[in-house]
UniProtKB/TrEMBL annotation:
CC per GO annotation: Arp2/3 protein complex
Matches recorded under InterPro entries: ARPC3 (IPR007204), ARPC3_sf (IPR036753)
Compartments, as annotated in UniProt: Cytoplasm, Cytoskeleton
Chief localisation class: cytoplasm
Organism: Phytophthora infestans (Potato late blight agent)
Function statement: Functions as component of the Arp2/3 complex which is involved in regulation of actin polymerization and together with an activating nucleation-promoting factor (NPF) mediates the formation of branched actin networks.
Family: Belongs to the ARPC3 family.
Record bears the keyword Cytoplasm: yes
Tree of life domain: Eukaryota
Alphabetical GO biological process terms: Arp2/3 complex-mediated actin nucleation; regulation of actin filament polymerization
Keywords: Actin-binding, Cytoplasm, Cytoskeleton
Protein's name in the database: Actin-related protein 2/3 complex subunit 3
Length: 203
């Protein structure tokens, strides 16, 4: 079966416009953005799609072609629109990855609050990505009820490895987004004060 996926480039401008409109109270009823990868056939762990990622980090995620947008591109593109929402209807396994990635971006922005230069930001986010973190089934994991606990040690290892790859790829690319010209973007840092779905990662 052929699956047609909307290129992320076609929704990038719409997402930016959507973000600006959402900052006006009269339009907060507009729907959140979902992953375009929900229909992509992929391995699954804990209800999360193990999606291709453009990264050199080792793990269960298959490599994504360099010229093709991946889930990390989606997360970064849609973050500022989606983070304003307290509710999000999950429409597929890729949406769970989108949610986790959005929460991790929020954590990264909080870490960068007092950071003043790109070099320090790179160091801080690289460390944040590899620090010990909770996975589904842990008491401190914030998405219990939305992401199921692993049913085996192998599944736990798979989701931990995938989340680690995802975190490293987000951390690496987010620095360029927040420091596009060497100076920290207020347009990004504003959203560090928002909580997507009223949830956040502690680490």
């Amino acid at each position: 079966m052929l699956v047609f996926i909307t290129p992320i480039s076609l929704i990038r401008a719409e997402a930016v416009a959507h973000t600006r409109s959402l900052l006006r109270p009269s339009t907060l009823e507009m729907p959140a953005y979902h992953s375009t990868l929900n229909e992509l056939q992929s391995q699954e762990a804990c209800g999360c799609a193990i999606l291709p990622i453009k990264t050199r980090a080792r793990g269960p995620a298959p490599p994504a072609p360099e010229g093709q947008d991946d889930i990390v591109d989606e997360i970064l593109t849609l973050f500022r629109a989606n983070v304003l929402f307290t509710n999000f209807e999950i429409k597929g396994n890729a949406d769970r990855v989108l949610i986790y990635g959005t929460l991790f971006v929020h954590l990264c922005l909080k870490k960068l609050d007092r950071c003043t230069n790109k070099a320090d930001a790179t160091r801080i986010l690289q460390q944040t990505a590899v620090d010990s973190f909770a996975i589904p089934g842990d008491s401190s994991f914030p998405l219990g009820g939305l992401v199921r606990a692993p049913s085996s040690a192998n599944e736990a290892e798979t989701i931990r490895g995938f989340f680690k790859q995802l975190r490293e790829a987000i951390a690496f690319r987010l620095v360029d987004e927040v420091f596009p010209n060497g100076e920290k973007s207020k347009w990004w840092m504003f959203f560090a004060k928002r909580k997507f779905m009223n949830k956040e990662l502690s680490r």
